[in-house]
Design brief:
7-stranded parallel sheet; NADP_OxRdtase_dom; 10 helices; binds adenosine-2'-5'-diphosphate; single chain; globular; alpha/beta; TIM Barrel; two-stranded antiparallel ribbon
């Protein structure tokens, strides 16, 4: 199919469809990762905060697919902003790998271990500078660095002093949370975008939406394929459907080409159905300026 890879600003290629593992529990995620890789996936996304890096690593080993053929992403957890070097080593150890294809700052929201929300005396821009240093010092361990959950405002502040342009900004994207301003800004700056929760996460009303179902029936595919393809059809966007169900892992791997008219119809869903899968607890904090998807 079309949409196989997106070129990063490092020159590396990120496969357009990857397996998401947010909420994929240990016990299930090993099998999901193994199945996905055996089926043909070559892009796996996890995070220290998901509490499943060890099991993702077990799934990768069990698949028998060489590490060099897999694009593996993990993320720096919020309470580790002041401990980035140690956190990197821990993620590598948990995953049972020598290197990451991509290491993301999970949120521009430093926390202290045990804190309930962000702490404002730690600046995520300093964390980015630490990540840059680690990237430059350890090209054997880090192939690319990037960010996640960054709004345009945050990206502007980062780019104003960054020495390394983030390779990727990973954000929530689905018809109810299109965040077109962020995608446009990233495209203009050479930052690839990766879509998480493309289906709208658990129990998503999008899978039951009449427009989605109609377009799916027309193409003879599942509603999920339409939502995944909608993201994969956007320039510079890769997409991470999450599943721990083998049959869904398989069917989610099919991306189809949507017509401009179908894309417009899907984008119009936003006018009636607003929700966000991943409510940032600090939304509304003026100085952080998070975009609210209503
Ligand atoms: P499960 O993991 O039990 O298979 P998102 O990718 O937006 O985060 O959505 C993940 C949610 O969607 C999970 O609850 C997952 O369930 C479910 N899901 C994944 N693929 C499909 C599919 N093809 N059809 C219906 N639901 C799906």
């Amino acid at each position: 199919p079309a949409h196989k890879f997106i070129k990063l600003n490092t020159g590396a290629q990120i496969p357009t469809v990857g397996l998401g593992t947010w909420k994929s529990a240990p016990g299930a995620v090993e099998l999901a990762v193994e199945h996905a890789l055996k089926f043909g996936y070559r892009h796996i996304d996890t995070a220290a905060a998901y509490g499943n890096e060890t099991e993702v690593g077990i799934g990768i080993k069990a698949s028998g697919i060489p590490r060099s053929e897999i694009f593996l992403t993990t993320k720096l957890d919020n309470p580790d902003h002041l401990n980035a070097a140690e956190a990197l080593e821990k993620s590598l150890k948990n995953l049972g790998t020598d290197y990451l294809d991509l290491w993301l700052m999970h949120w521009p929201a430093p926390m202290t271990p045990g804190s309930q929300g962000p702490v404002f005396d730690v600046d995520w821009l300093d964390t980015w500078k630490t990540m840059e240093k680690l990237f430059k010092a350890h090209p054997d361990k880090l192939k690319a660095i990037g960010v996640s959950n960054f709004s345009v405002e945050f990206l502007k502040r980062l780019l104003a002093s960054a020495e390394v342009i983030p390779a990727v900004n990973q954000i929530e994207l689905h018809p109810s949370c299109p965040q077109q301003d962020i995608v446009d800004f990233c495209n203009a700056k050479g930052i690839a975008v990766t879509a998480y929760s493309p289906l709208g996460s658990d129990n998503s009303p999008l899978l039951k939406n009449e427009v989605v179902k109609k377009i799916a029936a027309k193409h003879g595919v599942q509603p999920a394929n339409i939502l995944i393809s909608l993201q994969a059809n956007r320039p510079g966007v890769s997409v991470l459907p999450k599943s721990v169900t083998n049959s869904r892992i398989e069917s989610n791997f099919s991306v189809i080409d949507l017509t401009e008219e179908e894309i417009k119809e899907l984008n119009d869903i936003d006018k009636t159905l607003h929700f966000r899968a991943c409510h940032p607890s600090w939304t509304g904090h003026g100085s952080l300026g998070f975009p609210d998807c209503k």
